[in-house]
Design the sequence.
């Protein structure tokens, strides 16, 4: 349940009294119902499930969360990486799943 | 995709795995209710990154798995009618009813269509005025606002040929039912993050207090799942039981008020049978009397269905976490992904299907290293 | 556009903007269609003889033959059409056997009422694809079914090619230890189709990757020689289905490194939106190559120098363990079993 993806609001319109918008998901654009986010604005990010925007993404919070993750495991790095026989070589420079 | 790809980073996952290892000293059993979270866990192999003894139990979080058999049979009967366009999310197409599924109905001439959004079904109704368009409205509280809006819009725009077969299920009553069962092993829950984006998480403190179980609202990407687990394990190790929100960028305590308003406008809470589990009181939504004309159960009086659940299927026990898939006598024999007896073998994140694919690999690995 | 100005019939075909039953009847209308549409487009000596079959010189080497039918909807999609698929699909099947594709047949089943202009466009695309691939369409057939009994246009193409002596590749010839290469980004075609599919459509710049692979296949064989064991172009069912087929046929297991799978960012976004796994989404211009590990670098370099192979990547290996199973190392460094799909992969909300 609950496959929802984040996208950027590019345009807001009204269709028969209901607030709709064009939302851009990494290059893919869909018409999305914005009725549940009356305060959302162009340029905001939102999470969309079955064509409905459900929540505005708090971008500062997102960045903070990632920063917290980056701070983790510091002790492991200071002690040095473990011998990992499955460690891979550097990735190819082709554009796979670059955001 | 921004705010998605970053939360799949392998290096950060390794850091989180390390942090989790530092915390855990004892075995723990944690359940994630939401099927989308189960999908991420299995798809990425996250449980392999956890310390020995931390067990993930996959809960009844998949509307595919828990839609009552009778409702599926009803949908199949409606879809088979000649002037009906039956619209559904892709997930439902392979779910077995008593003797067939939507694919079979389609091959026999039924007009069955996959849509991305319930609004697409409303559009089909507008474009096909001589047909009855029926939308199969399943899902948790995450999907309910979308389905409610479709009905609301149909009323507003006077669309007479649209109706919905609604079979929604609610998360908090399911969690209570699991905690109440005599053989419950679940000690903590990862809260369903997108359900909470709609409902908030004000419903959980009473559960946390009554049963002394930590509930951590968790997202869906690998790093979100691992952070949810980390916070849960910290609580468990300390003997704490609190509600916590690990999906702060999306979820607030109150949730989405606008969505909740439309939910109460169109739906009402009802008792709901969960396939394989049984009736959980006050655990579902149905279309309320004010919108009855859009309720497909009323518009289509389906009387000739004879629902027979497989006597062999143990998916209910699996969904509650009381039985592992490979402990079911039919597992891999009468019941396989190609010929599923129950919904947990159909859906790719159904516990039985996941076990069928992954579990075999594990046993092969064990043999290889024996 | 074909030239309609020389129609000889007293009721010139240009007055029929759409296909009628007579076009499949073998009479004057059929003849007009052949002489004024198919022949000018496909433009070769063998076809111009207008016999029941076409006779060509026998080439040296073993004969490879392949057939495929094309029923795609919509007929015209971002980056291609049923016409491109009809030629490239059969050219590619031949190329994957190690053959040099030479001749194609083209059978059309048209629905009464199908617009002639659409047929002309499709035929033009076929002609263009054939020119690029270096093949000739030397024989064909047209039938017309009553309105409501077809879906506009179905095409079958069969093809013959020649396999040089010493080339012995096939899906059962992969061996444990082989490196697995893929020629470029996956899931482009399937998501291009999805982007215009009713109920699921979305705006994007995703284009089908439909292309003839015989040139690239030749590059692979020239660079790798005997160390190339198998080549396959994943179409419906995606790369995942193709790898499963080879694993079964060769009795090997396969390990993949998911992070290495080349997927365009927009295609990945579309897959994330609909809940699809790119491994099981269709392709129409990519190939998987199983080659001895020692030759992998050399073959990869040769592929990358070719316009259709510039994103070629090493994605995994054939192994002795977990035979018939595909196991992928995930982005977080764990493993998942990539199970074979039962039927078509469907969008999900769960």
Sequence:
């Amino acid at each position: 349940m609950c496959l929802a993806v984040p996208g950027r609001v590019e345009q807001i319109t009204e269709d028969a009294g209901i607030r709709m918008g064009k939302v851009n998901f990494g290059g893919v654009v869909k018409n999305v119902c914005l009725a549940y986010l009356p305060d959302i604005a162009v340029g905001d990010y939102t999470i969309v499930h079955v064509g409905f925007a459900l929540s505005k993404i708090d971008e500062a919070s997102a960045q903070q969360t990632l920063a917290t993750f980056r701070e983790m495991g510091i002790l492991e790095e200071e002690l040095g990486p473990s011998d990992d026989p499955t460690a891979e070589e550097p990735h190819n420079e082709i554009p796979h799943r670059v955001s | 995709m921004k705010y998605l790809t970053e939360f799949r980073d392998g290096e950060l996952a390794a850091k989180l795995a390390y942090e989790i290892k530092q915390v855990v000293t004892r075995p723990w059993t944690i359940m994630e209710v939401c099927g989308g979270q189960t999908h991420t866990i299995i798809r990425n192999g996250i449980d392999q990154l956890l310390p020995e003894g931390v067990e993930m139990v996959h809960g009844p979080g998949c509307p595919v798995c828990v839609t009552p058999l009778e409702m599926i049979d009803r949908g199949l009967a409606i879809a088979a009618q000649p002037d009906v366009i039956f619209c559904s999310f892709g997930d439902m197409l392979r779910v077995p009813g008593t003797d067939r599924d939507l694919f079979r109905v389609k091959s026999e001439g039924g007009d069955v269509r996959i849509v991305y959004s319930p609004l697409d079904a409303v559009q089909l109704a507008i474009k096909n005025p001589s047909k009855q368009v029926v939308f199969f409205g399943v899902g948790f509280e995450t999907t309910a606002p979308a389905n409610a809006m479709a009905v609301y819009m149909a009323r507003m725009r006077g669309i007479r040929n649209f109706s919905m077969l609604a079979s929604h299920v609610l998360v908090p009553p399911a969690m209570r039912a699991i905690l109440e069962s005599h053989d419950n092993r679940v000690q903590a829950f990862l809260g369903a993050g997108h359900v909470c984006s709609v409902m908030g998480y004000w419903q959980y403190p009473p559960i946390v207090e009554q049963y002394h179980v930590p509930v951590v609202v968790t997202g869906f990407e690998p790093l979100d799942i691992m952070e949810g687990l980390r916070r849960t394990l910290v609580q468990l190790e300390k003997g704490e039981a609190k509600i916590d929100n690990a999906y702060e960028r999306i979820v607030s305590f109150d949730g989405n008020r606008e969505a909740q308003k439309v939910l109460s406008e169109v739906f009402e809470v009802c008792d709901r049978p969960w396939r394989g589990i049984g009736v959980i009181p006050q655990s579902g939504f149905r279309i309320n009397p004010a919108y009855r004309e859009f309720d497909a159960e009323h518009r289509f009086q389906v009387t000739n269905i004879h629902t027979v659940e497989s006597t062999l299927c143990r998916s209910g026990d699996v969904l509650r976490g009381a039985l592992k898939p490979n402990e079911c006598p039919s597992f891999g024999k009468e019941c396989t992904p190609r010929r599923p007896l129950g919904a947990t073998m159909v859906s790719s994140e159904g516990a039985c299907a996941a076990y069928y694919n992954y579990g075999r690999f594990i046993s092969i690995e064990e043999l290889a290293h024996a | 556009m074909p030239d309609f100005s020389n129609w000889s019939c007293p009721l010139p075909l240009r007055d029929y903007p759409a296909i009628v039953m007579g076009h499949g009847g073998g009479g004057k209308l059929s003849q007009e269609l052949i002489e004024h549409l198919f022949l000018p487009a496909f433009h070769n000596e063998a076809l111009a003889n207008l016999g029941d079959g076409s006779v060509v010189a026998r080439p040296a080497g073993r004969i490879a033959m392949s057939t495929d039918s094309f029923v795609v909807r919509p007929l015209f999609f971002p980056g291609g059409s049923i016409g491109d698929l009809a030629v490239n699909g059969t050219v590619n099947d031949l190329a994957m056997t190690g053959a040099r594709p030479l001749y194609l047949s083209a059978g059309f089943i048209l629905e009464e009422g199908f617009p002639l202009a659409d047929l002309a466009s499709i035929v033009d695309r076929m002609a263009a694809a054939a020119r690029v691939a270096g093949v000739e369409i030397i024989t064909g057939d047209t039938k017309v079914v009553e309105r409501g009994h077809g879906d506009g246009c179905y095409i079958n193409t069969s093809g013959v090619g020649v396999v040089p002596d010493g080339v012995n590749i096939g899906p059962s010839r992969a061996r444990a230890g082989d490196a697995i290469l893929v020629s470029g980004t996956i899931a482009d075609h399937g998501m291009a189709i999805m982007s215009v599919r009713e109920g699921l459509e979305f705006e994007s710049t995703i284009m089908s990757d439909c292309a003839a692979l015989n040139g690239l296949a030749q590059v692979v064989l020239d660079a790798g020689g005997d160390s190339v064991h198998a080549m396959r172009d994943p179409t419906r069912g995606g790369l995942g289905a193709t790898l499963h087929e080879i694993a079964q046929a060769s009795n090997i297991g396969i390990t993949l490194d998911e992070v290495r799978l080349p997927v365009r960012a927009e295609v990945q976004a579309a897959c994330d939106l609909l809940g699809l796994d790119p491994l099981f989404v269709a392709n129409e211009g990519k190939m998987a190559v199983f080659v001895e590990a020692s030759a992998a670098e050399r073959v990869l370099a040769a592929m990358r120098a070719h316009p259709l192979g510039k994103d070629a990547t090493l994605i995994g290996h054939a192994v002795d363990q977990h035979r018939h199973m595909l196991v992928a190392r995930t982005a977080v460094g764990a493993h998942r079993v990539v199970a074979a799909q039962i039927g078509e992969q469907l969008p999900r909300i769960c």
Observations:
- Confidence is low (pLDDT under 50) at residues 7-12 of chain C.
